[in-house]
Amino acid sequence: MIPRPNLFDGTPEEVANGGSSDCTPAQSAMIPYEHVCFIIMPFGKKTVGPKLIDFDAIYSGIFEPAVSRVQLPEGGHLEARRTDMDFFSGSIDLEMFHYLEYSRIALADTSGLNPNVFYELGARHRARASGTIIFHQAENPIPFDIAQIKAFPYEYEPEYHARQSRELITKVLSESLTENRLDSPIRIALAAQQSLATAEQRDIESRLRRAENFLRMADWNAAIQEFRGASQAYPLNPLIRMRLGLLLRDRDNWREALTQFEAAISLAENYSEAWREKGVAENKLASNDELIGDPAPGENALRRALVLNPNDFDALASLGGILKRAGRLSPALQAYRDSTELSNGHPYPLLNSIKMQAYLEQRLDLNQATKRLLGRAEHALRTQIAQTPPYNAPWCFFDLAELVLFQQKQAEFMELAKQGLSYCSADWQPRTWLTSLKFLRPAARSLPGLEDGIRIVSEYLSS
Predict the structure, then answer these.
(1) In terms of CATH, what superfamily is 12-189?
(2) Has residue 14 got a pLDDT over 60?
């Protein structure tokens, strides 16, 4: 079914279903918006980190051909469109707003953290409840503000990786058309509660602003308190619950985090990311005896997340971890491999699939395809580490340490392990990594330096 345009001022039910308006702009007679995938991305050549990237070439070589291969459920193909100019305050073309409001699908490339892209992405999320997909170049970080929204990595060079990226984009867009899932965080919030007293709203907005400022200052405890206050004042907002749960999770407060994820689900039953985090938390809180159950703790929640969003490679990788802890190693390996393929070589499922295979075969044996993926992952991880502060520390250090261990670089493995430990903010982080390293012991003969790494992490935890 073709989604309706949705200039919204309707009920919560109407928000969740895509809006209350059935009107279309006059331009719809000229532009078949139901066939359009509007591309939100930087234009021209832009400096991103240390590289000068030609985004026009990415549009013509990656996005446009990938979009053109997407078949519409009712027949025909999706068409890529973008407005070929930069926008500045005071001179934003009305055509852009028509595309953001009425296009059946919007694809946003957040690479380089371009402010115009985020402006348009926010406008799209307010305009449409579904049909917005985010991509980013694999080595570029995702801001915390949108980290809870699923974003897919892509690469534009060499051609082998570009071909994989086109295939991934076509697959994700095709499934989005079929499923038509709610993906706008703004519409999720509006669907939960449409009105607040003015004084209450001002207080909540003030709390959320303070929370964001505390996050930027890395004052996690103060941010948690502000999110708690906001969730108490605005109990029907699942996004606040989700943000609070993620912060509590990262501070090793798994029990309260689980409570927040469950509250988010009770408010938005199809909130796939909340189902994913619920499954991870349930497994984390389970006793050793419970872990080997079938289904294992958290398994049902993760499978529910995957039903709601089959493209959630984080959920697939987390399912691999749960199956691994349950002793179901072959299905765990398959889940990690599926996540690696779906994510186009994300380091987490890639490294876990390598470790699982090494454990099962009691040796490390990398084929050429895996080595190519490791090379891509290494580039992304080194880019994360080079940022100030490092992106996703300590995991970027731990992941890169494992990667160089697989390359027989013992000295660099040890140095990266020490750097990662210096960024740990909670004991569960080094404990988790220690468990991961110990899992490799059956293949230790082909991994010189492994036991030294286990030793320094153990010493860190006992100090």
Answers:
(1) Flavodoxin domain (3.40.50.360)
(2) no
